[in-house]
Specification:
The protein is an alpha+beta fold. It contains four helices and twelve strands, in the order ααββββββαββαββββ. The protein has a five-stranded mixed beta sheet, with no helix packed on it. A five-stranded mixed beta sheet has the order 4-12-11-6-9, with helices on one face. The chain is globular and about 40 Å long.
């Protein structure tokens, strides 16, 4: 019965993960268009901000940036669980949490591990659950990764972990514009 249910959900998952669903940040996802900024270039980085992910909070708890500024985020997961650092609006995070729930339900995220093979599974139309958007990193404990991001304009942004339950337990922070 479980496999029948899982197979029945595949078209819905594929639709949820398709690029059209995320266009212009209307329905959440990772990269929501120009309003949240754009991937930056290493040569344009003005400063580096170290972010530590713990269970379930970030250090620092908020970040200040300037419109037009390109930041290198050096993100380390010092927690005991899988965590995400994702730049977006509150609405984007809310929508993305549904996608992350599917990743847990389908065994992609397993507490302190990520099943990389499951992330690459074809969900139809060549869509996968890969977490490869430029404004987001999903990491196992002990990992360190970087995001280079240009904040094109002042807007209401957060950084958040959208692994089920983490945002709700307070794992998010404000991005304040100077």
């Amino acid at each position: 019965m479980k496999s029948i249910l899982r197979n029945a959900m595949l078209p819905a998952i594929a639709l949820a993960l398709s690029p059209g669903v995320h266009a212009a940040g209307e329905h959440g996802g990772h990269h929501g268009g120009d309003s949240i900024g754009e991937p930056g270039k290493a040569e344009d980085v003005s400063r580096t901000i170290d972010v530590t992910m713990l269970d379930n909070y970030y250090e620092p708890e908020s970040i200040s940036v300037k419109p037009g500024e390109t930041i290198r985020f050096r993100v380390k997961n010092d927690g005991a669980m899988v965590h995400e650092f994702n730049i977006g609006t509150a609405d984007m995070h809310e929508a993305h949490q549904e996608e992350m729930e599917m990743m847990v339900e389908h065994g992609v995220i397993k507490g302190d591990k990520i099943d990389e093979d499951m992330m690459k599974m074809d969900m139809g139309d060549g869509k996968t659950m890969e977490h490869d958007d430029p404004n987001s990193v999903l990491m196992e404990p002990g990992e360190t990764r970087e995001i280079i991001w240009t904040f094109t304009e002042a807007t209401d942004l957060e950084f958040a972990c959208n692994v089920p339950g983490h945002y709700q337990s307070g794992m998010y922070g404000d991005i304040d514009f100077e």
